[in-house]
Specification:
The protein has 108 residues and is an all-alpha fold. The protein is built from four helices and no strands.
Length: 108
């Protein structure tokens, strides 16, 4: 009986929802960090392995970065969403340019 006096179910549900939101945000941040790391590592892979492999890693990282940016744009306000969508389109254009260079290298 005494425990029920100090429990607030609405507050517990609100805290549970907030913790779940923080977990989702942390997963999104981890994905963004890994994609950024892949983009940064690509030039070093070119030196160590081959340029074709580095271009493939860069294209994959840009593709996932485009997807992640577009996905996050749906979760924010309209002003920031429009800016994020512009960045997503720029990522897509850069990814297509990288794929063009890669295809030209592989066919030559």
């Amino acid at each position: 009986m005494g425990d029920e006096l100090f429990r607030n179910k609405e507050r517990q549900e609100a805290e549970r929802a907030e913790l779940e939101r923080i977990r989702r945000e942390n997963r999104t941040n981890l994905k963004a960090l890994l994609l950024t790391l892949a983009i940064v590592i690509a030039p070093f892979l070119a030196l160590l392995v081959s340029l074709d492999f580095a271009l493939g890693v860069l294209a994959a990282a840009l593709a996932f970065s485009t997807w992640l940016t577009w996905k996050v744009a749906g979760d924010v306000g309209p002003v920031l969403a429009s800016r994020l969508r512009v960045v997503a389109w720029m990522n897509l254009a850069l990814m297509l340019a990288v794929l063009l260079v890669l295809s030209l290298r592989l066919t030559a």
